[in-house]
Amino acid sequence: MGNRSYEPSTVDTRWLGAVMDAAFFLLLGGALARFLLRHPGEPRTPWIIALSLVLAALHLLGPRAGDSGLRPTRRHKAWLALTVVVWMVLVVLAPSFAWCAVPLFYTGLRTLPPRAALALVAVLTVFVVAAQVELSGRFDPNLVLAPPAVAALATAVFLQMERHTARQRFLIDDLLRTRHELAASERREGTLAERQRLSMEIHDTLAQGLSSQRMLLQAADRVWETEPDKARSHVRTAASVAEHNLAEARRFVHDLAPADLAGGEGLDEALRALAARESGADLAVRVHIDGDGRLPQLPDRVRSALLRVAQGALANVREHAGAGSAALTLTVLDDEVVLDVADDGHGFDPAALPDSPDGGRGHGLPAMRARLRALGGTLTVESTPGEGTVLSAAVPLEAPR
């Protein structure tokens, strides 16, 4: 898109250059025709014709008026000096060639630095005035004042256009630079957001599964000699958690969707599967789904977020609460869906949690809040020491159309 921003200016410049070329050859041809009609057979005629051809050839060999970004070089300056000298000789021999200076004004202003260009315009104007006075045969104030006025006006307009073009080019360059910086900033923000999302996904899947396996295997090790049946139960539960964790890892690599939702199951079935997986000898997890009725179809992002919240909450219950039972309650209202996770553990004081990004509990609660906040939802934690904990996650739903 940045290149297209320059196209109109380049097209306009080339169009103006073509007009200047046409004007130059029309003026040159008109002056030559006027001279041949009024002064046929004079000794100077061959010189006039030869110099006219040389001037036309120089114009064709010089830099094109439509070339953008033209920087004066020694070759350009030498070409311009030779062109002006040939034109001056022509004007001295035949004053009718004076008006060929108009395209030379434009070429000089484009080729030379400002001061040198103004000096050239002044010299060309003097020659034009002298030629017009000589052609008229008498002194005419209008012929003396009009050419300088026209030259001054044309020069002022050209310089103003050049300044405007320079400002426009600067603004376009600045806009393109700003767009590139904005795109780079958006990419950085997207990368950071994706890193945070991946961090939460890893915490809610692999890390929690590994933590559960470790606790189950430690429990099995403690009772391996005294209660082998209970130890084998812990090992079987750890194996089940490992199998599910493997499915989560594969799903995580594939598209980061929860494995419990991969087969198109609803959130209620996913919560029941989670409860069955987390239930064991030391923790019983129950599920209550809005009166056990069939849930309406929830958006995929809402289902995934609430399931992750339930996984994180049960991981905290198993690791920190010391609870014997926990309950998952899912309620769908007209404008929001609410998931409550309650346990009968020893509880804690929410206000006493360390004021840190992870709240003193890894990525658990902050990850849940961030996940729900992305959906416009909220997370509420109610707990009292010795009386258990209730975690409530609410996500708004779009109004039905």
Automatic annotation (TrEMBL):
Gene3D superfamilies to which the protein is assigned, alphabetical: 1.20.5.1930, Histidine kinase-like ATPase, C-terminal domain
The organism of origin for this protein: Streptomyces chartreusis
Residue ranges of the TM segments: 15-35, 47-66, 78-105, 117-135, 141-159
Domain of life: Bacteria
UniProt keyword list: 4Fe-4S, Cytoplasm, Iron, Iron-sulfur, Kinase, Membrane, Metal-binding, Transferase, Transmembrane, Transmembrane helix, Two-component regulatory system
Subcellular location, record wording: Cytoplasm
Protein name in UniProt: Oxygen sensor histidine kinase NreB
Stretches assigned to the Histidine kinase domain: 197-399
Gene Ontology CC entries for this record: cytoplasm; membrane
Lineage: Bacteria, Bacillati, Actinomycetota, Actinomycetes, Kitasatosporales
Required co-factors: [4Fe-4S] cluster
Function: Member of the two-component regulatory system NreB/NreC involved in the control of dissimilatory nitrate/nitrite reduction in response to oxygen. NreB functions as a direct oxygen sensor histidine kinase which is autophosphorylated, in the absence of oxygen, probably at the conserved histidine residue, and transfers its phosphate group probably to a conserved aspartate residue of NreC. NreB/NreC activates the expression of the nitrate (narGHJI) and nitrite (nir) reductase operons, as well as the putative nitrate transporter gene narT.
Reactions listed under catalytic activity: ATP + protein L-histidine = ADP + protein N-phospho-L-histidine
Keyword field contains Iron-sulfur: yes
